[in-house]
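Appendix B, Record 12. Input sequence as logged:
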Amino acid sequence: MWYDEDTIYSQVKGMDICINDEDWLVVAVLRNVGIIVGRSNAVGLEGFNKVQFFKSCLRNTNIESRSYSVGGLAITPQILTFIVIWLLTPRGFNHAVLTEKDLMLMYCLMGRIQVNWVSVIKEHIIKIRKKIKYKIPYVVLISHFIEYFEIDTEGEVVEMVKAQNKISVATLSKIGLKKVNNDH
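Logged structural output:
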């Protein structure tokens, strides 16, 4: 896999593919527009202060915290954290502490600021290639690109979702979600 600013190039089963802005729009219904969120890149987020934003997400805003720990977050930021860290930009390490990029994505999502998701996904795919601890989260998206580029998948191994791939009740409880009786 190689890339430039606008295109990801790869080879799948001997077939060269180039994923450009038009392909992102057709396959993923994503436009290459919005704020590019990245580490130390707050262009377009002039009002963003990671310390103040993190404090505003805490259950108890009077508590001083030296790290950006997920544990003290209010329920909505905890759910959003789960989505950002485990689904949108998953990593294979330290899910208990938020990075600057995690906070920036949360800030944009909570403030309804348009994020350039094409850029976020491309950056994450490039990290996957470089860093062993990063996970490939976009299996369905990649499958759609394979179909779009008409790559023959006959005879390929299909892996079914396993129990370890599912979100457990314990995980949901840890982030503060509880089953509520519909009668009340």
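Strands lie at 2-3, 8-12, 15-19.
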